[in-house]
Amino acid sequence: MRILIAVILSVIVFFLLVDGAVDYKGKGYIVGPDGIARPVVDGFDFPVGNRDGDGWGITGYAFLEWSYHSNSWHPGEDWNTVEGNDFGLPVYAVANGLVVDSLWNRAMGNIVQIEHVLEDGSYIYSQYAHLNERYVEQKEIVYRRQIIGTIGTGPYRRFAPHLHFELRTAPLAANAWPRVGGQAFDLDELLKYWINPSEFIAQRRPGTYSPYPPRSH
Question: Domain containing 89: what range?
Answer without folding.
Answer: 56-202
